[in-house]
TrEMBL record:
Localization of this protein: Cell membrane; Membrane
The protein, known as: Dihydroorotate dehydrogenase (quinone)
Enzyme class: oxidoreductase
Residue stretches making up the Dihydroorotate dehydrogenase catalytic domain: 50-336
Organism of derivation: Salegentibacter maritimus
Chain's role: Catalyzes the conversion of dihydroorotate to orotate with quinone as electron acceptor.
Listed pathway(s): Pyrimidine metabolism; UMP biosynthesis via de novo pathway; orotate from (S)-dihydroorotate (quinone route): step 1/1
Active site residues of this protein: 179 (nucleophile)
Pfam family, one: DHO_dh
C-alpha cells in the first residue's frame, strides 16, 4: 500500500514539505489508542531472538532509525511504534540554527536516493532535552555536532555543551564530524583534532556516575589510510564504536536530473561503499569494536549484508522513505528466518 498508493502521492510534493506533513500527521494520530494499536499490530515484530546486547545496551531488535530524520526529538515515540529497535535523534547543536537556505532536499527517484544539504537545522539541544524528558522506554541515541558559526578551533566546546545537556536523556552518543553540509566540519576527522575531541568527551564521560557509550560517525569517502587512522583513534580513545557511514559527496553512476545538486548523497548508490567500509573496519581491527551499519539499506538482503560484513546493528534513513515502515519488519523477519535455519 505504501509503495503503490501513498508514496506516489507524497512524491508529487516538495520533499521537505512532505517530511513536515508526515511528522504532523503521525504526531496527530500517533497518540490515539486506536491508531497506536493498529500501527503496532501491522509493523512491530517482537521476539527474544531479535534482541541484541551491544556496547552494554540491550536493543529489542537491531534495526534503528538513523540521525537526521527526527532531528529535534519530536517523534521518537511514534517512530518507535513502527518497529524500530532504537531511535537516533539529531544532529543537535548547542544553539538553534535554521540550517542552509531552501531548497535543500532533493529526491533522485531514478537512483533510489536523496541529496540533502540541510546544514544541521535544529531547535538547539535544550529544546531536544525538554522533549526527551517525556520519553517512555525508547532507546535513544544522541547525535551531536557544532554550530555553523563556531570555528573549528572552538568546536570541542560545542560538543561538550551537547554532551552535558543530553547526558541524562540519551542511552548513547554519536559524534558527528562527517556531515558534508557544515563548512569545514569534515576537517575534524583528521587524526589530531578528532583524537582531542574524543578524549575530551571521554574525560567528561569518566567523571559521570555511569559512562554512556560514545560512537563516532564517519564518512564513506575516507581512504583506506584514513580508515586505519580511525581504527587507531578508536583504540587510543577507547570510545565504544563507529557508525559507518554518513552521506557521500560522490556522484558516481547517478542517472537522475538532480545529481549535480551539492550536499550529501544517501540511499541505494551508497549500499556497496558503506558495506565495504564496514568490512574494512571489522577485518582490519579484528572486530575490536561494534559497528552500526547505515547506508543504502533498501531491502532485508541489504541489511543482512551489512551484518555479515561486521555490523552489530543497522540503521535506516533513505530506505525508510522509499520503502516505508514495512521494511523494518521485513529485515527482522529475515533475521528470524535465518536463526531458524
Amino acid at each position: 500500500m505504501y509503495k503503490s498508493l501513498l508514496r506516489p502521492f507524497l512524491f508529487r510534493f516538495d520533499p521537505e514539505w512532505v517530511h513536515h506533513f508526515t511528522f504532523n500527521t503521525l504526531k496527530k494520530f500517533g497518540k490515539t489508542s486506536f491508531f497506536k494499536s493498529l500501527v503496532k499490530k501491522k509493523f512491530q515484530l517482537e521476539d527474544s531472538r531479535l534482541e541484541r546486547e551491544v556496547f552494554g545496551l540491550k536493543f529489542k531488535n537491531p534495526v534503528g532509525l538513523a540521525a537526521g530524520f527526527d532531528k529535534d526529538a519530536k517523534l521518537f515515540q511514534e517512530l518507535s511504534d513502527l518497529g524500530f529497535g532504537f531511535i537516533e535523534i539529531g544532529t543537535v547543536t548547542p544553539k538553534a540554527q535554521p540550517g542552509n537556505e531552501k531548497k535543500r532536499l532533493f529526491r533522485l527517484k531514478e537512483d533510489n536516493a536523496i541529496i540533502n544539504r540541510m546544514g544541521f537545522n535544529n531547535d538547539g539541544v535544550e529544546a531536544a532535552v525538554a522533549r526527551l524528558k517525556k520519553n517512555k522506554n525508547v532507546l535513544i541515541g544522541g547525535n551531536i555536532g557544532k554550530n555553523k558559526i563556531t570555528a573549528n578551533e572552538n568546536a570541542v566546546e560545542d560538543y561538550k555543551i551537547c554532551f552535558e545537556a543530553l547526558y541524562d536523556y540519551v542511552n548513547y552518543f554519536v559524534v558527528n564530524v562527517s556531515s558534508p553540509n557544515t563548512p569545514n566540519l569534515r576537517e575534524l576527522q583528521d587524526k589530531e583534532p578528532l583524537t582531542n575531541l574524543l578524549n575530551t568527551l571521554q574525560n567528561l564521560n569518566a567523571a559521570k556516575p555511569k559512562q554512556k557509550p560514545i560512537l563516532l560517525k564517519i564518512a564513506p569517502d575516507l581512504t583506506d589510510a584514513q580508515l586505519l587512522d580511525i581504527i587507531e583513534i578508536v583504540k587510543e580513545t577507547k570510545i565504544a564504536g563507529v557508525i559507518a557511514t554518513n552521506t557521500t559527496i560522490s556522484r558516481e553512476g547517478l542517472k537522475s536530473e538532480n545529481k549535480l545538486e551539492t550536499g550529501g548523497l544517501s540511499g541505494k548508490p551508497l549500499t556497496n561503499r558503506a558495506t565495504e567500509v564496514i568490512r574494512f573496519l571489522s577485518e582490519k581491527s579484528n572486530k575490536a569494536f561494534p559497528i552500526i551499519g547505515v547506508g543504502g539499506i533498501h531491502t532485508a538482503e541489504d541489511a543482512l549484508e551489512k551484518l555479515d560484513a561486521g555490523a552489530s546493528l543497522v540503521q535506516l534513513y533513505t530506505g525508510f522513505i522509499y520503502e516505508g515502515p514495512a521494511l523494518i519488519k521485513r529485515i527482522n523477519k529475515a533475521l528470524l528466518n535465518r536463526s531458524r535455519g
